[in-house]
Specification:
This protein is α+β, with helices and mostly antiparallel strands. Among the domains are: 85 residues, Roll (Pdz3 Domain); 165 residues, 2-enoyl-CoA Hydratase, Chain A, domain 1; 84 residues, PGBD-like superfamily/PGBD (Muramoyl-pentapeptide Carboxypeptidase, domain 1), CATH 1.10.101. The chain has 15 helices and 20 strands. Strand 14 and strand 15 form a beta hairpin. Helix 9 packs parallel to helix 10 and helix 10 packs parallel to helix 11.
């Protein structure tokens, strides 16, 4: 985002954020941070993961001071007096002794909660220091992007090749417990601190998944999280080469890595078409996606728009004269959020390119990080981003031009049982097992959850082929191996019908 746009919008939004800056004494609450990776990357040092826009601290000093000066004297003295009176009243008259800092933290946290915006958060000095230390010194964790959705810690997307992905965690999974400790009522950072840990250590999280009757446990071994954000490959169809570039998140290095891979595919591989895959990409830095879009969207139309709270809109253009001379498609799914959605909708509306997959996450706001002068920070939603045509996809997502779901086993759920599943039983665990078995080539002829003789036969065959004790029943060992095998074939890219379709539409 251009700096002059930021400062203008900051001043326009002054009246909106006065309530948060009502006095310097109202500082100190721990905020729930949205879009925080459980293993942070050094490229986002001193910033928030998945926070579009540059940091306030990146602005020139005079522009920072201009904004802060504009806030002085903006709050009525009566407001300050009311706040001060409430603090004094509680501190001096409440039945029990109360810590003043605790009151101040509660005050600012309460103000933020009245916004009913999970993306506007506050971190006190200690939390900021811990956060920056974790970013700068640790790449260890389970590897998942999380958000606070309706008061629940919710996975936006697992990171590629991370423990979270390998364990089968999915977008919209809600984390209920961490090592048997409930996170109900926790702020996001409090829950994240429980999940983080050193490489090689284990953590068990209880997950509630939409469409599944009962919560289930997932044990993960924390690991170093890969920092690479760009991967490429070639697929051929009817003698034509399709280059595929996968972007897992948008960091400071992503644009340069994308340009390297794009140049290589164009010049060395002589591709006939391009697929940009942002499935499971939770977003990242706005400048990164802007630079990528400038490779494809011509200068005669905006590639995106930014609007402030007064609906004053700024449009952003590239300097590109001609589009690429080959077809392009973009892959999205429910884990594609934020900057990924900017890419998808811009390519769709401004470029006229095909979007393949399922509707995206739906985050259309932009946050600004503002240091409060004492080491604490407020990250506040100050803008919304709009598509080239002025559409706002917030809470709706980007709709694909070719909606394609993966095979059913991609969406199968882990099977957790205390007693073996056996003949003539009927439940959703058996249904999941039948779906997984079919995906692995053991077709029971039904996927309705009823354990008939044919299901028993294919279970026995699966057990025999995998050196398990042949019982025909689905016991714990069989259930765990089914899940492991399914994750393996998903990660190997087998039967990725979304990607296949994205390549096909290039040459239709």
């Amino acid at each position: 985002m251009n700096q002059d746009i930021e400062v203008k919008s900051l001043n326009l939004k002054k009246s909106y954020i006065i309530g948060l800056l009502v006095a310097a004494l109202l500082l100190g609450a721990v905020g729930s941070f949205v879009g925080v990776q459980l293993a942070q990357q050094t490229t986002e040092s001193n910033s928030t993961a998945s926070s579009e826009g540059q940091r306030f601290s990146d602005l020139p000093t005079e522009q920072q001071q201009e904004f802060l000066n504009s806030l002085q004297g903006s709050t009525d003295s009566e407001d300050l007096e009311k706040v001060s009176q409430a603090i004094d009243l509680i501190q001096n008259q409440y039945l029990e002794q109360v810590d003043k800092d605790q009151l101040l933290e509660g005050a600012i946290q309460g103000m933020l909660k009245t916004l009913e915006d999970p993306y506007s958060v506050y971190m006190d000095k200690e939390t900021v220091e811990e956060f920056n230390h974790q970013i700068e010194s640790s790449f260890e964790g389970i590897g998942a992007e999380v958000s606070m959705v309706e008061g629940k810690v919710t996975i936006v997307a697992p990171i590629k090749d991370s423990p979270a992905e390998k364990a089968g965690l999915k977008p919209n999974d809600q984390i209920l417990k961490v090592d048997d400790q409930s996170v109900e009522g926790y702020e996001l950072y409090e829950a994240v601190s429980l999940i983080r840990g050193e490489e090689g250590t284990k953590v068990t999280i209880e997950v509630e998944r939409p469409g599944v009757d009962e919560p289930f446990d997932v044990e993960l071994t924390r690991d170093d999280i890969p920092l690479e954000t760009v991967y490429s490959e070639i697929q051929e169809i009817d003698g034509q080469k399709a280059g595929i570039i996968e972007i897992t998140s948008f960091s400071e290095d992503t644009e340069s890595r994308f340009k390297e891979e794009l140049t290589r595919l164009e010049q060395e591989e002589n591709i006939d078409g391009l697929v940009i895959d942002v499935r499971g990409n939770p977003g990242g830095l706005l400048p990164s996606i802007q630079e990528i879009l400038k490779n494809f969207i011509t200068k005669d139309q905006p590639y995106m728009q930014i609007a402030d709270g007064d609906d004053q809109t700024s449009r952003y253009f590239s300097e590109l004269d001609q589009p690429k001379d080959y077809p392009i498609s973009v892959l999205i799914d429910e884990g594609s959020a934020s900057a990924s959605e900017i890419l998808a909708v811009s390519m769709k509306e401004a470029g006229g390119y095909d979007i393949v997959g399922t509707p995206s996450f739906g985050k259309g706001t932009v946050q600004q990080t503002i240091p409060m002068g004492d080491g604490s920070t407020i990250k506040l939603t100050m803008f919304k981003w709009l598509s080239p045509e002025g559409n706002w996809i917030h809470e709706e997502g980007v709709q694909p031009t070719h909606e394609v779901k993966q095979p059913d086993y991609f969406y199968a759920n882990p099977i957790q049982i205390e007693e073996p599943l056996t003949l003539n039983e009927n439940n959703d665990k058996i249904e999941n097992a039948q779906i997984m078995l079919k995906g692995l080539g053991y077709d029971a002829g039904r996927e309705d959850g009823y354990y008939d003789e044919q299901t028993e036969e294919v279970v026995s065959k699966f057990q025999q082929d995998n050196d398990l004790t042949v019982t025909g029943e689905i016991n714990t060992d069989t259930a765990e191996l089914l899940q492991t095998k399914i994750v393996e074939i998903i990660q190997a890219g087998e039967n990725d019908v979304q990607k296949q379709r994205a390549v096909e539409v290039l040459f239709e």
